[in-house]
Design goal:
CATH architecture of the largest domain: 3-Layer(bba) Sandwich
Largest sheet: 8 strands, mixed
Helix content: 40-55%
Shape: globular
Radius of gyration: 22 Å
CATH class of the largest domain: Alpha Beta
Distance between the termini: 41 Å
Bound molecules: flavin-adenine dinucleotide
Number of strands: 19
CATH superfamily of the largest domain: FAD/NAD(P)-binding domain
Strand content: 15-25%
Amino acid sequence: MSSDVVIVGAGFAGLTAAAAFAARGARVCVLESHPTFDPRFRGELIHPRGVRALEGLGLKAPLLRAGAVRVEGFAVSPGPGSAPLQLPYPQSAGEGLGIDHHAMVSALREAVAALPGVELRTSQRVDALLVESGRVRGVRTAQGHEVRAALTIGADGRASKVRTLLGFSPEQSLLSYTVAVGVEGPVLPVPAHGHVFLGAPGPVLAYPYGDGRVRMCIDVPWGAAKGKDALKQFVTTQYAEAVPEPLRSAMLRSLAERPLEGCANHAISTLECVAAGAALIGEAGGCSHPLTATGMTGATFDALLLASSVGEHGFGDEAVLHYQRERVAFVRLRESFTAALYEIFRAQDEGSAALQAGIFRYWQQGDRGRLASMGILSCEDLRLSPFVTEYTRVMGATAAELLRSALREKRPWTLPSRIASVAATGLRRLEQVFAHAAQGYWRKSSLSLAYPAPSRTDAGRALDAAA
Ligand SMILES: Cc1cc2nc3c(=O)[nH]c(=O)nc-3n(C[C@H](O)[C@H](O)[C@H](O)COP(=O)(O)OP(=O)(O)OC[C@H]3O[C@@H](n4cnc5c(N)ncnc54)[C@H](O)[C@@H]3O)c2cc1C
């Protein structure tokens, strides 16, 4: 069969992209490998920017009908017994939503499959690309079906087959493990807010996700416990104190009574996300630690940007190049902010404690820091400069505070190694950002596109030669 667009993967990203292309009159075929949905635990909290995008595509109402509840911002607790500090979403941004992931995907599938021009086929695992004269012309599934299309979109998640078939080799690291616990009944310390509880071996993210339930995503350092029973035991003994009552008792009950759910957390980073006739969106185009809950909001950004690039430039190379160029800045900012926050929140050693104290002081000083952080976290503010400024302020103020306390206590001043390593990570990321700017990722309107896509090094060389 043939279509204008073939989308590989009917997860959140693939479904929003299908709606975005259908809204522009394109014929879209979506192929999903699972007969129902991917059973693994995935994201449930959508920031206001993502919700506005869904609303524009007519997909917010189906989510509300499927049980989505309002989220107004975040509340962060620095440690056991301490009051949470509130970080509201910018007022003009609107509301975020929390919803059970599988209920969300089911609702989106039903709504998207009913759109004119959209065909959704399940139990179709894409395992090959159709390539002619250096262009991707569609896909073939393991079940023997071929779909030809002017644009092939890889929306097949973090272990993307399409990304591999296109020849991209992203930077990947395994960060930690999320233990996901659903609890019924208890009210969060600040209603209708996402919460982050610190003071355990990793941060605990908790948010409402409908029907009076609270989801808790517990970040466990990789290798801290092996096997389900050991993981349950580790979380029970190491994290309970950081969680306030009555959430704590509900969490312990759920851990004791229910099968363990969870998944690995990765950071995957790829700058190249397009080839001739093909583009990656959502987690196929990279992902960060889930602490900042930005994956789905990022996926709506990708879907709208790619559809509008094609709307503006047609189905040729210009559209995917425009998409790649515009996307790089957004993705880099999200990756950098999430990595910085996770670095600060993930440990309890002296340097991490000083950085956590530094960031809380910064947020307590007034609205400015809170609003700037939430603007970046919720993807409302896509500029790099506020992130660099805020990051430098927190690092500088933390180092100054440590110096002041050393002087007060008349002891020699040493910078804890963790602060030095967090600063070095930040500098490395900034250096990458500037290197990409210098290579022209943010301004070039022509790269040589071909299939197989050039590797990162080759692409870098091609850019250098063209610059
Ligand atoms: C622990 C955890 C917590 C998270 N929390 C949040 C959060 O609170 N908020 C947030 O915004 N984001 C969160 N995320 C990220 C979020 O889950 C993703 O952004 C979201 O699922 C959208 O991803 P996607 O559609 O790109 O990929 P996926 O959700 O992985 O969907 C990919 C789809 O492609 C299908 N597929 C795969 N391979 C093939 C193939 N070869 N052929 C056909 N189909 C295929 C899969 O079956 C699946 O249906 C979290 C992630 C994790 C791991």
